[in-house]
Amino acid sequence: MSEKQNTLYVSSLAKGLKLLRAFDETATEMSLGDLSRRSGLDKSATQRLANTLHIEGMLDKDPVTKRFRPSHAWLEMAYAYFWSDPLVGLAMPKLIELSQLLGATVNLAELSGDHILYVCRLPNRSSQFSSTLVGRRLPALNTAAGRVMLSTRPKDERDHLVDTWTLRQFTPRTTLDREAVRASVDEAAQLGYATTQNQMILNQTGVSAPIIGPDGLAHASVHCSVSSHHWSHERILEELLPHVLEAAISIAPQSRGS
User: Fold this and answer.
1) What is the Cα–Cα distance from 222 to 95, expressed in whole angstroms?
2) DSSP states of 217-249 as a string?
3) What is the pLDDT of residues 67-113, one digit of tens each?
4) pTM attached to this predicted model
5) CA dist., res. 207 & res. 221, Å (int)
6) Among 3.80.10.10, 2.60.200.30, 1.10.860.10, 3.30.450.40, what is the CATH number of 85-257?
7) Where are the domains of the chain?
8) Which end of the chain is less congested by CB atoms within 10 angstroms, N or C?
């Protein structure tokens, strides 16, 4: 059903949400003109919506520059989300244990369309700032977490998704060859885990194991990032992978019962 055919669709609310979605890590504070350009809304609508969102506490407005930025209300909404997602509470004790055991960055990733979303992040002391923040959204095909979740789908379905899902270049060595990505997903389907290297950050290796849901598919995964300088492939297989797999397996039965 299209938006126009849906009598419950509120276009003015949709425009307000479009304005909020204009903010990201590249645009954290914007003027009305900036908001209009990024959202695609005309300046008059942008002004009305931005000021309404400011009055309702969803946007802060600098009294001098008149520029808008996300307010603390966004954090309150994120807090509500964490309580609404039962997997977060189930996974957190195991993620903390895994992070302390390995001394590495450990994440809980969930599938969100053709992207993954990090909903829990336990960084180590050498983590970059971007690797410490929950809510980061990345193309699934670029990540070990996304590939291992995709690998639990039937072969014909995952082939179609490899052909159509977003791929984006993050480093000079990011894999953009879809056949290479397909081979990686197929390998993950056979092995039960996925690894990537140099995809998001140079000299970083990602290792991910699927959290299998009640439908037999993975909608979440345990993901670990380590330095390629300190962790060889052999060391990852011997010292890291068994713990990542055990964490994902131990979370899965609980999630099925939630």
Assistant:
1) 8
2) SEEEEEEEEEETTT--HHHIIIIIHHHHHHHHH
3) 999 999 999 999 999 999 999 999 999 999 999 999 889 999 999 99
4) 0.86
5) 10
6) 3.30.450.40
7) 11-74, 85-257
8) N
